[in-house]
Amino acid sequence: MRSKIACRRASDGAVSPRETTMFNKILIANRGEIACRVIKTAKALGIATVAVYSDADADARFVKLADEAYRLGPAPATESYLRADLILDIAKHSGAQAIHPGYGFLSENEGFAAACQAAGIAFIGPPAAAIAAMGSKSAAKALMQKAGVPLVPGYHGDDQDPALLQKQADAIGYPVLIKASSGGGGKGMRIVEKTEEFAAALASCQREARASFGDDKVLIEKYLTKPRHVEIQVFADSHGGCVYLFERDCSVQRRHQKVLEEAPAPHLPQATRQAMGDAAVAAARAVGYVGAGTVEFIMDVQENGEPGKFYFMEMNTRLQVEHPVTEMITGQDLVAWQLQVAAGGKLPLAQEQLAIRGHAIEARIYAEDPDKGFLPSIGTLVHLATPPESSSVRIDTGVEQGDAISPFYDPMIAKLIVWGESREAALRQMDAALGQYQVVGPATNIAFLRRIVRHRSFAGGHVDTGLIARHHDELLPPPAAPSVRQLALLALAEALAGQQRYPAAAGWRLNGQLTRRFTFQHPQQDCEVELSHQGDGYQLRVAGHTLAASATLSGNALAAVLDGARIQASVVRHGAQRVLFAGGERLAVEFIDPYAFTETGVHGETHLKAPMPGRVVALLAAIGEKVAKGSPLLILEAMKMEHTITAPGDGVVQDFYFEAGEQVNDGDELVDFAAE
Ligand code: ADP
Ligand code: ADP
Ligand code: MG
């Protein structure tokens, strides 16, 4: 049975209720955050959802959120998310009436769209013919030329003779950009600075295009040296309605891939916005478009920094990764629009009913290591804490703490989207939200994103696609040495965590004058903190500074007072790793105990000896207890310092040779430990 929803007329602005048959159940042929995103709207509309997953995603968030889920196959996309045949079988079998392809994978595959249609299942996207028309950047440009949409000067013909291509490039004038006609995801592009370099660049571009897209056709464009990427969200229904939901500026890119996106575009005159919107609608109409699409334009920046001319670049015939910024400024749910249109309904609103309110920015949070050339960083999300979501902070994600970022797919952790009444307000929101985004496990680009958001060029809205490369050194500085405050917080957390885990060691400290020394290893330097008990609190000595402190620790949450300043921080302990989140900054160090003193004898048993004369103050394990490597076994006080003897490996405590309170000499054996 299909349920009925009311649907409003869009094309003429008059609102007249009309009955449309909405789907009862849809299948989502995608994974990760976009699968979760689609499920969210489906749930809100009372539509049941079917997920499909690969073995790598069997326990993923989107699988749990869906009402039903079916296995596709092994992790590689070619054996799972690209298996159109299996996906269609599951859709039929599960009774799904429509398939949402998300983005990537099968979303721009005209064969899949056609196969859905043939099977009587609605494809939540444009008609196969529109995908085909825009699938080739060359053919799309030819079509756009006819539709009167401005194009970047260039060559997009069928003749691919290298000599002809060279001649075309010479005529356009260098620098030129060679682009794979079937390219995407920022791949298959070569900038050529002069004629002598053209032939080699062409060959290399064709090789990559063949390997990545199975098609070595290229086009040539004038390479704009300081352009902006401004794209228009369009939406069309199957009743002739077509509107644009304004623009997004995606100029902040790394290697032609989007890093930060925002809406509206900064410093964009209303007249330009309207001209671009009209051009985008013309582009959509030219291919008989239906559904959500994005027309990407490249825009010149004039000498005075003002936006210049804009040119059609390509059309993405799907929902775009950065669609949430449009949702934030228009108050519309684009997935709900997609469902309504795919079900045969009319657009929910007419052009004149759409308006921009405030400003939104999206940051793509990736598991990648900016210090290692942005190499993807896979592994388990050991700790994950996010800023609280609200009407101005939105998080689109497919993962939760404990999940792994796998090597098989895009290593995106989340999209963080913020909204403010003004761009300045949105920037502040983004800065604060990034400062609250905590990840331990894989490396991330969070600190890098925050530096961009704080950078004067971005803050001033002076964006172009070269922004990151131009300010590379400022945006990717070497890791800063830990501050006094950070080290003090780490030492407090260490002391409190130790007391919680080994209460036996806590009591004797109350009246003690003892000092403990903590050493933290940081890429720049080893850092030492001395901590002694003073009254109810502590005295800390860090790099020549003395601080009075008190603190409590609850889980990872550290509440500290440092010289009168109250500070909330988080300290995540993972193996020897300590990650401090305080004041919006993240600091990762290794905790090392230089006094852990071990000597391995014959037969694998280990003798733990006193590193110096002193007094045993606490035994931290029971005789016969199995302990893990690094577990504290005994505390020795010597020369007013406290030293922890830790287990040299996993093993069993056979015996202690001294009681708490007894004096020991340098080199005395303290613990009889049997390593496993
Ligand atoms: P959008 O244009 O929707 O903002 P992108 O152009 O960044 O997003 O990416 C579009 C699609 O291409 C997404 O499905 C994304 O996963 C995929 N993609 C992005 N980067 C790459 C890449 N380096 N290689 C292959 N696919 C990519
Ligand atoms: P993709 O399919 O990989 O998204 P696009 O054609 O959309 O390919 O181009 C991706 C990015 O490359 C653009 O956002 C822009 O930064 C850059 N780019 C594309 N065409 C040009 C050009 N003619 N001049 C300068 N930069 C360009
Ligand atoms: Mg593009």
Quick synopsis:
The chain has 676 residues and is of the alpha+beta class. It has 17 helices and 42 strands. The longest helix is centred in the last third of the chain and has 18 residues, at 484-501.
Describe what you observe in this structure:
Residues 597-674 form the Lipoyl-binding domain. Keywords: ATP-binding, Biotin, Ligase, Nucleotide-binding. Its cofactor is biotin. Residues 141-343 form the ATP-grasp domain. It is a single chain. The chain has 676 residues and is an alpha+beta fold. Among the domains are: 3-132, Rossmann fold, CATH 3.40.50.20; 153-222, ATP-grasp fold, A domain (Dna Ligase, domain 1), CATH 3.30.1490; 484-591, Glycoprotein, Type 4 Pilin, CATH 3.30.700.30; 605-675, RNA polymerase II/Efflux pump adaptor protein, barrel-sandwich hybrid domain (OB fold (Dihydrolipoamide Acetyltransferase, E2P)). The chain is 25% helix and 35% strand. The chain has an eight-stranded antiparallel β-sheet with strand order 16-15-12-13-14-17-24-22. Helix 12 (423-436) packs antiparallel against helix 13. The model is unreliable at 1-18 and 594-604 (pLDDT under 50). Bound molecules: adenosine-5'-diphosphate (2 copies) and magnesium ion (MG). One adenosine-5'-diphosphate (ADP) binds next to strand 14.
